Each structure stands twice: as C-alpha cells, then as structure tokens.
C-alpha cells in the first residue's frame, strides 16, 4: 500500500515537473516589437506613425481595463521611460508625448524635423510598468521640410530697381506719345 502511494506521488511529481518545464503549459513572456519606423530610418514630416506587433498577451485599451492584469502600452515620444521602469510609479497622463493605448499603432502629429526616439512601454491597468520590463525603442529622423527662401521672388521681379525705373519711364513716354497723337488726330 505504501509503495503504491509512493508510486502515485512519484508519477504526479513527474507530470508536474514536465508541466512546469513544458512551453505548452508555461505562459509566454509578453514581447513587443516596433515594426515601423525601423531603427535609423528617415521618415516624412510632420506626422509619424509608430506600429508594433505584440506576442504573449492581448492588449486592452486603458479605459476598458477592469483588472490590473489587463495590459496596454505607453507610446513615449522623446520621453525617458526611466522614472516608470521600476513598476512602482504610474506613467502619467495628460502629456501629448505619452499615449496610453491598446492599439497596435499610434500617430504623433506635428513632429518637428530632426532626430527622435520612441519607446513602447508595456503596462498594467494601473499604468505601472509590466515586470519584467518590456520596453523596446527606436531612433529615427524626421526629414526637414523644404524651406522657402528668405524673400520669395515676385512675379515680374526684375531684381534691379534701376532697370525697373527705366522700363517705367519708357512706358510713360510711350503712353504720353500715344495720348498726344490721339488728340492731334481729332482736331
């Protein structure tokens, strides 16, 4: 009887050990990959769309989260995530460079030309960082918009004021002559 109980417990131990070691039974660590823009890319101004892929979890919009385990992402444009990586301080709301979202993409509008960085921080419903931290980032450059010259040329601008005065003078003489000739033919 004791041997039979030991055999049952040993069998249960083997099954449990296999279950914990098997990836089928283990929950995958959530992963986020930023698919666009790619690191080092140059993107067109002024709007930048960041696109991600997520594995190991399903994102829930922050406003619809009902349990702490309902995960969402924080898109951070040019914002250092260090203050929130410990998982004890919530990521703040109300900053246009920090977007709380359950979506797989986010567009930042009106991004200035030059170098930028985006981090995507996985967080719980209470806006604290998921542990262990999932925080991929990319650096990219927003292309500068074509700049207009300091003074745009005007239609018909001759560039030289003396030449313009000469042409106006010639036009005045021609007009005066035409008017005089017109009056002399009427008499």
Describe the structure.
The protein is an alpha+beta fold. The chain has a domain at 29-142: Immunoglobulin-like (Sandwich), CATH 2.60.40.10. Helix content is 25%, strand content 25%. It contains two helices and eight strands, in the order αββββββββα. It has helices spanning 2-21, 161-186, and strands spanning 31-36, 42-43, 48-55, 72-77, 98-101, 105-108, 114-123, 137-142. The chain has a five-stranded mixed β-sheet with strand order 2-8-7-4-5, with no helix packed on it. It has a three-stranded antiparallel β-sheet with strand order 1-3-6, with no helix packed on it. The radius of gyration is 35 Å and the shape is rod-shaped.
Give me some keywords for this one:
rod-shaped; alpha+beta; 5-stranded mixed β-sheet; Immunoglobulin-like; 3-stranded antiparallel β-sheet; 187 residues; 2 helices
Q: Which SSEs are present, and which pair or pack?
A:
Elements: H1 2-21, E1 31-36, E2 42-43, E3 48-55, E4 72-77, E5 98-101, E6 105-108, E7 114-123, E8 137-142, H2 161-186
